[in-house]
Write a structure and sequence with these properties.
- The structure is a single chain.
- This protein is mainly beta.
- The protein folds into 5 domains: about 10-60, Roll (SH3 type barrels); about 65-115, Roll (SH3 type barrels), CATH 2.30.30; about 115-170, Major Vault Protein repeat (SH3 type barrels); about 170-220, SH3 type barrels; about 220-275, SH3 type barrels (Roll).
- Helix content is about 0%, strand content about 50%.
- The protein is built from no helices and 34 strands.
- The strands form 14 sheets. Strands 23, 24, 26 and 27 form a 4-stranded antiparallel sheet that branches. A 3-stranded antiparallel sheet has the order 5-2-7, with no helix packed on it. Strands 12-9-14 form a 3-stranded antiparallel sheet, with no helix packed on it.
- A hairpin with a 5-residue loop joins strand 17 (about 130-135) and strand 18 (about 140).
- The chain starts with 9 loop residues before the first strand and ends with a strand.
Length: about 280
Amino acid sequence: ILKQVVTPLKVVAANSALRLRAILDFEDDDEEKRTAGDEWLFEGPGTYIPRKEVVIEETVRATVIRPNQAIRLRARKETIDRQGVARVTGEEWLVKKTGAYLPGAYEEVVDVVNAYVLTDKKALRMRSLRTFKDDFGVTRKNGEEWLIKMTDTETHIPNVYEEVVGVVNITTLTSRQYCIILDPSDEHGRPQLGRKKLVKGECSFFLLPGERFERGIQNVYVLGEDEGVILRATESFKDTDAPDEKDVERKPGDKWMIRGPAEYVPPVEVEVIMKRTAI
């Protein structure tokens, strides 16, 4: 007695597959033992011949990965991916190889990720979502932030364990400009909280994560012969710009004047009270 009407065989096209599930334990034509609940793919091109122990769950189609793109995959259960890497349930990873990618039986496509294009005037500010080793071989701690610049790579596809906080524009100072950076980073990229850093032009740089300007970009004080600026020390320091060309030890609260003609950039330990012109 026929259990169901005669149906045509399924023809599976190239770059597609049938996701199959065993409903009974059996051994297939390749002598591979299947256990009830197992899932696997029948990949095209080909004609699928059904078995009573197997049901078709769905048709899976390949996702096309274009240049500067990647697909983000997630493991539905423990599996071995197409690169032979063991994946645990819920784990996510990227596939960047250009071409058609057919997800495995226990893989699902989460998203298609486009690359960010970097220029000499723009950088990416990144944040780590967990401790991992990034694409450049650097171990990043959970919550750590850093910059990726064009000197590192021309394009960047964010890893599954990092996120893009924003795009940072380059800061350019002319020879008549300066700025003071608060909480500057050291040579290892660690913020030095409470410190200040004076940067004089002509130069270009990116503000690192955690850094900020005290008052933005400032113009150098250009003093004529009848002009001067009154200064006050905010902390102790050795003044190398003293009028008598001798180093002077300044203490917090000390006041003095710089007279023109001169170009003056106040150190981080000094504030300018006012600019005066002789009568």
